[in-house]
Amino acid sequence: MRLFSTTVLVSTLAAPAFAADSELTVFDWAGFEEPSIFQAYIDKHGDGPTYAFFGDDDEAFQKIASGFQADTVHPCSQMVSKYRDAGLIEPWDTSKIPNFDKLDPEFLDSEIFKDGEGVWYIPTDWGATAVAYNTETVPEEDIASLQIFVDPKYQGRTSLPDSSDDVWALAYLATGTTDWTEVTDEQFQAAADWLREAHQNVAAYWSDPSEQAQLMASGAVDVAWSWNDGVTYLKEDDYPVGFQRAAKEGSSTFFCGFVNMKNGPGSEEKLYDFINAWLEPSAGKALLDTIGYGHSSTEAMETIKDEPAVAEGLSEVDAPILAQVPNDPAQREKQLAEFEKIKAGF
C-alpha cells in the first residue's frame, strides 16, 4: 500500500534513502521520487537520482546549513532567500534549460528568484493547502468555515501539518488576514491566539502527506489541513475524502522548485538533465496523477487542463486565497518560534 511505503522512506530523513544514480543526489519532499515525473532522466541514464528526504522546509535548510551535501534541493518559494543569504546556492545556467521559457512568468516575479546576477530558482510545482475531510462523518455545513478547527465537536479529531508556514497560513486566514507579506503585530497575535485554540483539537501534527493520509484512513481524525498529495493518496485507497478550498475564510496556495547547490558533489551535466526532465510537458500529467500538483510550465498545464483533478484541487475558487509567497524572513522566524511554543502547550 503506497501510504505505508512512503512513510518508510521518510524514516531515513537526510540520508541517501533511495539510492540509485550515485552521481546525482536530490534532497526532496517524500513522494517526489516518483519516476514518471522525471522519466526523461531515467530514459537517458538508466536509473533515477539518489534521493534523500525531508519533512518540512525549515528542517531541510537546517540540515543543508549543517553540512549535508546534495546537488539540488526542492524548497518552496518563501525559503529561497534563506539559501541565498546563507551563500549556499548559485544561479542556474538557463542556456542549458531549453524549456525555461515555458515557465509561467508569475512564478519568477521576484528579485529573490531572478535578478541581475541570474536565475536562482527553477519553480516546478504548485498546489493548495485546504481542508481535507471525511465526507461520511463530517457534514458539509461544518466545512463551510475554517472554524471547524476550533469547534469543540472536533476535539481530538483534527490534524495540522508540522509546518510553520502552513499552520500560520491557516491561522491568518481564520482570523481575516489574506496577505502575509505585511502582517501587523495585532494580526500576528490574533492568529497566534487562534492557533492555540486550534491546538486543543489536534490529535497529531502530520510531518508528511502519507502520515496525514494514514491518520485519516485509520479513522484517527476526520479533518486535516492538507496539501493536494494527501488527498490524492486517500483517493487511491478509496477513502471518502473531500477537499474544501472554498471555506468562507479561504484557503492557501504555494509553489516550490529547485535550487542549484554550490559545490554539489555530483555531476552538473546530470543535474541539468534532471531539471530538463522535470520541465518536459509530459511531467505535468505524471505530477498530477501521482501527487495531485500543478506544474509551473504553461505547456505542461495545457496538457492536463481538462483533468478532473485540476478542477477539484487546482482550479480557481470563489473564496479568499493566502498565497505563500516570499515574506519577511524575520517574520517567518517569529512565527516558527511561536509555533514551537504552541505545540509544546505554551
UniProtKB/TrEMBL annotation:
Under SUPFAM superfamilies, the record lists:
Periplasmic binding protein-like II
Please provide the record's keywords in A-Z order: Periplasm, Signal, Transport
Q: Where does the record place it?
A: Periplasm
GO molecular function list? polyamine binding
Main location as per UniProt? periplasm
What is the superkingdom listed in this entry's lineage?
Bacteria
Taken from the UniProt entry, a GO cellular component term is: periplasmic space
| Pfam family name, one | SBP_bac_6
What does UniProt give as the signal peptide span? 1-19
GO terms in the biological process aspect are: polyamine transport
- What PANTHER family would the database entry show? SPERMIDINE/PUTRESCINE-BINDING PERIPLASMIC PROTEIN, SPERMIDINE_PUTRESCINE-BINDING PERIPLASMIC PROTEIN
Protein name, UniProt field: Polyamine ABC transporter substrate-binding protein
* Species in which this protein is naturally found: Paracoccus methylarcula
